[in-house]
Structure formats: C-alpha cells, structure tokens
Amino acid sequence: MIAEVIFDIPLERAFTYVVPPGLTVAVGQRVRAPLQGKPRVGIVIGCREGAGDGLKALEATVEPGPLLGPAQLALTRWISKESYSSWGSTCVALVPPLPPRAERVGLPGSATGSAHAHELAASAVSEKALLLTGADRDERLLSLLAEAEGRGLLLLVPEIGTAEAWAGRLQSRLGQPVARLDSGRPEHERWRAWMALERGAARRAVGTRSALLAPVPPPATLVLIDEHDPAHKPPGHPRIHSRAVVLERARLEGHSVILTSPTPSVESWWQADSGRLGRSDGSPGPWPAVTVVDSRGALRGSPLSPALRRGIEQTLARGGQVCLLVTRIASALACGECGFLLRCPDCGIPLAYSRVRRECSCRLCGRRERAPDTCAHCLGRQLAPLGWGAERAEQAVRQAFPRLTVARYDAETVTPAGAPRLRQRWDDGSVRLVIGTRQVLKALPPARARLVGVITPDHLLRLPDFRAGERAFALLWAAAEWLKDRGRLIVQTQHPEHYVIRAAVGQEQAGFYKPELRFRAELGYPPFRRLCVLTIKGRHASGARALADECWRELARLDGLSVYPPAPPGRSAGGLRWRIVVKGGNDLPEQLRPVLTPILDRRRAGPGVVEVEMDPVELI
DNA sequence: AGCACGCCGACT
DNA sequence: GTCGGCGTGCTC
Q1: Model-level pTM?
Q2: What protein residues sit with their CB closer than 7 Å to strand C?
Q3: Which helix (H) or strand (E) holds A536?
C-alpha cells in the first residue's frame, strides 16, 4: 500500500510513502512521515496499491481516522487555488492542534472512519445566505439559532477575545454545551472538542480561524461574526478571508450561512443589493449626541481641540469615563522644513516613530534604527512627529491633564495577560480616561463612559487605499454603537463634509454605501473587480527590477486584466522591493495561473521571490 | 589550508 | 519552510 502525503511547505507536490504492515491509512487522515530525515506531520490525499520500492515508510497515524472528509478536502483544494497558498500549508493550518501525547495513535493504528466524513452535497442546496445588521443583530441571531434548534452550528469570531462571550451566550440560550475551538483554549481541549464534533457527541462549536473546517453535520448553520473585520484575514497561510471560505463551504456541503456586522463590508452590502444575500437590517438602535469639530487650521500642536478638551473636563467633573480613539499606534517622522517623510529604504512605507525609545521601525520588514536628528533630504534639524498615533496622543493628554490617571490600550501596550488588569482598573474607576485603537471598544465595557473622542480619522480618509473609507466608517459607527445614547461623541476632522463622516454621525448606512459603491464602480475596485497584489523581493536592486519587469510583461499579455506597472510600495524610490497591482474578474486566480505558476515554481532559483496576495484587505 | 557565509536545489 | 552541499572569498 502506498500513500500520497502533503506537508506544510510551499510546494504543490505530494510525497509518496509506503504504508508499513499493521498500519491502515485513509484519505484525509493526519500522519507522521519522515521528510529530510525528520518526522513531520502531513495529510494523506491519496492511497493506492503498490510495492513502493525505494520509498520511505510512514511512521504513524495521528488520529485513528480521517480529519477531513471528501467535501473538506475539496474545500481545501479550492482555498489553495483561490489564495495561491500551497494545498499542504492550507490543510495543516486548518486542522486542529496535535492531540496530547497520551491520545496519540501509534503503530499499529486502525482507521475507524468518522461519524460524518462529509460527502459532497449531491446538489449544492445552500439556502440563501443572510446578512444581519442593526444594533439588535446579536439578539436576532440568537433567535434564529434557537429556531434552528437541533441543527449543527459553527460560529466563527474574528479574534479570541469574543469567543468566550459567544460560547456563554449560546450555551445559556440554546441550553447545550458548545465546543470551544478558538485559540484561546488549550490545545488538548481544542483537539478533544474537534473529536467530539467528529463523533457526533457535540454539534455546536465556537471558533476562530483554525475552526473553519470543523466537522459540523450538514445541514448546519455557519455564522461569521463581524464579517467586515479585517481580522478574518489574519497573517499567515492560507491568505484568504474567512467569509469566502464560509460561503464556499456552505455551497459545497449544503449548509446555511449567517453573516453579521454593524457595518458590513462593501462587498457583502453589494451582494445583498443584488439579491445574492438576504439582508435583515433590524432596528437602528440608540445613538449618542454627536459633535463634528472642524479642525482645519487647528490641531497642529495638540490632539485636543478646545471643544474636546471642554468635553473631557465636563465628563470627568460629572463622574463619567472618557475614551479617546486613535487610528494607529505610531506616528511617522517628517521634516518641518522640506516636508520629507522618513521611509524604510527597503520597503518604502513610512517608518513608525517612537519618541520614548527614540527609534524608528518598519512595520513590514522589522528594521529598527535610531531616530535621526537631521533630515536626510535637506539636512534641516526640524524633524517632528506627524499624525496622532497612540503614543504621541497619550503624552499630549497627560500633559493637558497632569493629575488624571490615563491608560493606553493598543496592541503594543497591552498584552493578553495585561488586558484583564486594565479592564479591572477601568471597571473600578481608577482609570478615568483611556486612549486606544479600535480594539479598546471590544475590550472595555461602556457602562460609565459618557464621552468618546475620535482624535481624527483623517489619516484613514487620505490613505491611498480604496478600503480606507470603509475602515473609517466602521470605526466611527463602532464608537457610536458602543456609547449608545449615554453620552457624546466628538469627531475632530478636517473633512466635516466627507460622506463617510456624515453617514456615520447621522446613523445613516445608505449615506455611506451608495457613494462608496459608485466610487468603486467608477474606479473598478471590489466588489466590481477583484484585486491581486504581487510583491517582488530581490537580493539586488537590479535582479528585483528585472523580475518585476518580467512579471509585468507577462501579465500584460493576458486578456481581461488591468495590470499596473511595477511601483515601489509607498512613494519613495525603492530598489529591493516592487509591487504590481492587478485587477481582473471573478476568476482572477485562474486568469493569472498560466503566468504565475512558472514564475512561482522557480522560487529562489530566479533573481528574487514573488509573493501573491489575492483580494488584499489593505493596499498601503 | 581552513572556515564563514550565502546561494541554490531538494525534500518520497 | 528548512536543511545541507558547495562555491566564493577572506583569514591565519
């Protein structure tokens, strides 16, 4: 007996092993096999009769039966083709963690098969998918799930923080235990939860990304919470949005889908507009009093306009709490004389400036360097931070309110372990004012908050990223929804007439989606066309340039695409790194395949490497 | 001659 | 992704 196995490596090929006597394996099963002399974990994708002369032998099976049925394997193949991630890395990323040592199946093992190794649905009978918006969406979701009592359920959240709350809510509403597959739980628990689903001992699960393929019996309901959240396309392989996977899985296996979001992605809104997705808007919900502060000509030296400063003083005097929102953690460093913006010489994006550490760092390549004293361009000495990142805003607020206890909440300052401590200090009122990025709204309860100040969303509105408006809209809407009608929302902006600002503060969704869809249609952005970004990295500037030109020439020969010429990411003259943006139709991955496959297959044999990002969430 | 480093092919 | 073989070039 011979088995074909794929591994977590960036290669499309499978490796062939002989199955030793006493071991039984099936397609979809997880196994250990030697690769480059060391045992590694892979997935069996094929079995056939044969002697297997000269082949190495499988070492062991990990579970007694397959983890992935035919339908899930077909889905992983689809994900791999859509995302240009190898089939092996796709499969390995989407199966549960390894079992605890005691539960491992050694030699010999027996293939028991799973309770429901799902076959492909005979006819794709996925009921119409539903998009839930509105302030009461969670409650309406729970009602829908209660009506579907007895069906399987897989509820996917964008990050671990919300998994616990959802598990609790489901349990108290539906009255049955919910399997936890989110990465917030220990590995052995996640493995056991997956196995319980496999056996049919559980049929409801809450999870994060790695639970996308969890075995729920069809027809089940697949729920994607906060479908607009960029966290649904996290770093790492496979590079694909969970929304796309959930919709395709439902089609293949015959599940139904519910997407929820206060501010749906423009893609999903459009799907609903064109009838491919049902939309249920629910009630608009309570809204805060909103003040839009026109900060044109102001805000040079302080993140606090007089109106916001007064608002903070009054809120504190009445015993309320304050949340100040920034749109990014770090500021950039710019020359006050010539306007030169300090960028990473390799990557071309502005370097993040930390005044505390007196250093600049690159978000892409991780390069760190001491903050310079003089401008490399004009030799001027007026280098100053640009924009209100969390660090700089915090310093300014501490200066303005020296006797106030101020806390900062963002990915850089708060560790998963430190979050409960801050939450405690917020709950007991020892922290009266918190400055943070949008995650702060999920981490802290709004009960005693009476003021939210958005320092400014202008940075988002001016980014050369077609999704920036959507992100600004989502931030403002989330801030208002958090506060409800308990307080005041103050937005400082130099663009008070911008449709993103007007729609958000006016609690009027159509005011955002209508002009946004028009803009995207005119310029050929999603959902009207699909995007792909190629990043070309070379060891030498000349090689990188040559490879970028080659990619560009080859792509330009394909029909039905718009291919933009190679450009350094960001605005500075690059060298080692180039970026090519491609626009195409719904089948963009297939359109690109004849050109990309030979180039990707060369790997490091060429003058550089090419990375493919389909459907990018941010273009910066 | 001896070693460090970087490049490149191979992985069953 | 990761390992190891091998060539270039520098040092003792």
Answers
A1: 0.93
A2: A 8-11, 35-38, 603
A3: strand A530-538
Instruction: Give the pair of three-digit tokens for residue A417.
Output: 């372990």
- Asked if A572 CB < 7 A from strand B, the reply is no
Distance from CA(A223) to C1'(B1), angstroms, rounded? 68
Which tens digits make up the pLDDT trace of A177-234?
899 999 889 999 999 999 999 999 999 999 999 999 999 999 999 999 999 999 999 9
**pLDDT at position A42:** 98
Judged by DSSP in three states, A402 sits in coil
Whether the per-residue pLDDT at A74 is higher than 90: the answer is yes
The amino acid occupying position A101 is R
Q: Which residue is nearest to nucleotide C3 (CA to C1')?
A: A36
3-state helix, strand, coil in chain A (%, to 5): 35, 20, 45
Distance A537 CA to B6 C1' (A): 17
Note the CATH number of domain A2-103.
Answer: 3.40.1440.60
E-strand ranges in A95-187 read 130-132, 152-156, 179-180
As a rounded value in angstroms, the CA-to-C1' distance for A10 and C4 is 19
* Nucleotide with smallest C1' distance to residue A11 CA: C1
Amino acid found at A359: E
Residue located via tokens 């790695």: A210
Tokens read off for A185: 């739980």
As ranges, strand B nucleotides with an atom below 7 A of a protein CB are 6-12
* A289-328+387-520 CATH, one of 3.40.190.10, 3.40.50.300, 3.30.540.10, 3.40.47.40: 3.40.50.300
CB A7 under 7 Å to nucleic chain B: no
Give CA–CA dist A449/A61, Å, rounded. 54
| A109 token code pair | 């093992």
Both tokens of A283, joined, read: 């009630």
From the CA of A539 to the C1' of B5: give the distance in Å.
15
Q: What percent of chain A clears pLDDT 90, i.e. is strictly above it? A: 72
DSSP A439: T
H-type alpha helices, A484-524: 499-505, 510-523
